[in-house]
Amino acid sequence: MNLQDNNNFPDDLFRQELNSFEDVYDPKAWEDMRIKLEADERRPWFLFPFIKIKSNNNLKTIIIIMSILSLISSVALLFSGTTAIASQALYSATSEVRIAIVDDKPGSTANYTNSSVDNNTVVNGTSTNSSIAEISSASANNSSVSSVINTNSNSSIIDNATNHTETAAPLEVMQNNTGTIDQTVVPAATKVVDPIKTVAGKIVEASKDSSLLKPVSQKVTKAVIYKSWVGDRYEYVEVEKKGSIKDGWIGLHFTEQYSHMKTPWDSSGMLKRSQGFNVQFMSGNRLSTENFAGYFGFDFGMQFYGRTPKTNVVLNNTSQDSGFTRLYSHSLDFMVRGHFEYNKHRLVPYVNVFGGPRFYSTGQRVTSYVPLQDNENSMTNNVSLTATLMAGVGIGARLQITPAFSLDARYEWTAGTKTKIVNTSGSTFNGLNYNLDKREINSNFGQLKVGVIFNISETEYTKKLVEPAHYVERVDSIVVDVSDTGKIMLPCNCKPCDKTNNTSEVHPNNTEERIPETINTGSNGTTRTSSGSGGGGSGKGSFPGIKPPAPRPSEKR
Amino acid sequence: MDFVTPLHNDTQKGYISTSNPDLEQLISLCVANDRSAQEQLYKQYYGKMMGVCRRYFQNRDDAMEVLNCGFLKVYQNLKHYEQKGPFEAWIYRIIYNTIIDFIRSKKTLAFQSTSDLDQLTPTASDLPLQKLYADDLLKLLYQLPDATRTVFNMFAIDGYKHEEIAGILNISEGTSKWHVNHARQQLKALIERRILK
Prior knowledge:
- The structure holds two protein chains of two kinds.
- The termini of chain A are far apart.
- In chain A, strands 15-16-17-19-20-21-22-27 form an eight-stranded antiparallel beta barrel.
- Chain A contains four helices and 33 strands.
- Chain A is mainly β.
- Chain A has helices at about 10-20, 25-40, 55-80, 130-140, and strands spanning about 90-95, 95-105, 110-115, 130, 145-150, 155, 170-175, 180-185, 185-190, 195, 205, 210-215, 220-230, 235-240, 250-260, 275-285, 290-305, 310-315, 320-340, 345-370, 380-400, 405-415, 420, 430, 435, 440, 445-455, 460-465, 470-480, 490, 505, 520, 525-530.
- Chain B is mostly helical.
- Chain B is built from nine helices and no strands.
- Chain B has helices at about 10, 20-30, 35-55, 60-75, 85-105, 135-140, 145-155, 160-170, 175-195.
- The interface of A and B includes residues 7, 9, 26, 29 and 40 of A.
């Protein structure tokens, strides 16, 4: 058999044999399948809606993972708790209290007793759950027993409003959040102390002047609420440019000028029809009337009246080059302009009036036919310059395409004082100069101007109140020395630069809220909070020109 | 992702129409989670479907795992079976899609060092061509690289076109052709070697 004869030989062979190939049934396969089915049925739909369990081992793995996650979550919940904030109190929270009774003798085993609030019994000794009162009374009868109070913030409330008397344990050790013991107290007499109310309503009383105990320092971490005054918050919204132009505009126009005078001597038609350009610089609206606007400004225009044919001349240079000379005329005008428009719609009709001088100028130009050398130049002489005072009116309309761009078209009529201009077509060349033919005109023209107008006003914004002024509460923690009701240890942030002194003492009775300094910008009523600089310790004075803080409304309770 | 599965006519000969009342009852029992019915259905289609899986996976455990995953999908979706067309084709399509998903998830189609013909070792049971049976052909097939075997399976046995293979396996059409050609050459050489022996 020659296999090379048939290219598809393997395909056919394998297709014929394997397409109908059936594997022998394996009972183990159904066992696996059954396990899969049972695992699929046991799968809680709300926990594993999309997880495909491929084997029993995977199911076990998932169960183990979920168990670990549940355990971690439970522990995290147990130790984190929630912060209870008393809305009217300056400081309001401590936490679970765990009291352990410790044998005072060195090397003895501690017997920890948890309060009814704390369910985490500490091992390393006989653990019992009892109320704090029981512990206290028990402690009072046994001077050799000491207690350890472990406080953890953010889970209970210190009620500072009421006081209770209690005979405290003979020896107490306060433990802070980190679990380290801060201070050891010695027995002292019974006295009124600050109660510590737990979440469950239990009251733990730390004796200060007990006959058995005399606490030197007992630090408890409490939550404190700072209330900061935040001024009005504004949002600045861009005002759409429509209607009148606020700050000013620039107009660029092409000018087609027609003569309204009878000038039969103008054989070349230089006055009948001429072209030029005009640039306008206009102010913003000066009228307060709605839908009507008035602008004032000035413009600069130039008209070109053409030139005479070339007249050949021989240049007076060493090469006696051939050249030519000709006359050309133009006019310049500087007008003061008033512009009044009705701008209710996008198509803005207007009228304008203007007046100012116009200068007619005629020059003679002599230049060479051949390219000029570096040291050669063409020569231009002004042969005639006359001026006239002109005035005129115009009507037109501008179409506002965008807030900053308009198309403009207008027609203007002008009139002016009489003056003489050079009739270029009537002037003749005498071999050296032109014999000028001067004619008198009164500048009665009509001008069609087509161009564009650019609104150069600044973008205008309106102030929109987003959020009115209010107090913002911020929760922080402080360390309270419960052995001394006259002071509270605060994490000091009043001197941020002084890092050596991290705490300062304030009196708890002074329960005014700590409000950051405010600097009134004075522009829009918004306030800016200072970060504490300029406080007493920095030695730097206030920034020049800043006004003292604005009066603040009283807090609404 | 579902793939259209072209089936050969001879494959369809064995289809059981759902007009069969026994099958309809079996399906309804399976939907009701009757374990014995599920076992019966499993046994009924095990041979055929496992044969398909074994063509693609040299490792029998892999083939069984894929088969069972496919059957799990079958059981989970039996209630959605609309009884349009042969039931076996419906199962076949699910199993086949599971195979393709498994291959793609394992990324077995990455180019591997293709074994040269000299390195291919003949199987223990050397039989003449006329006595080559399915098991022997499978053993020859297993000597192909995974990628080549998969493409050859899809092209030569399952009837896919190169364009379809390229789309399913996310390879180029030229690569698919190369694999088929490579498989043919190697299989011819292996078969010739057996015959000569």
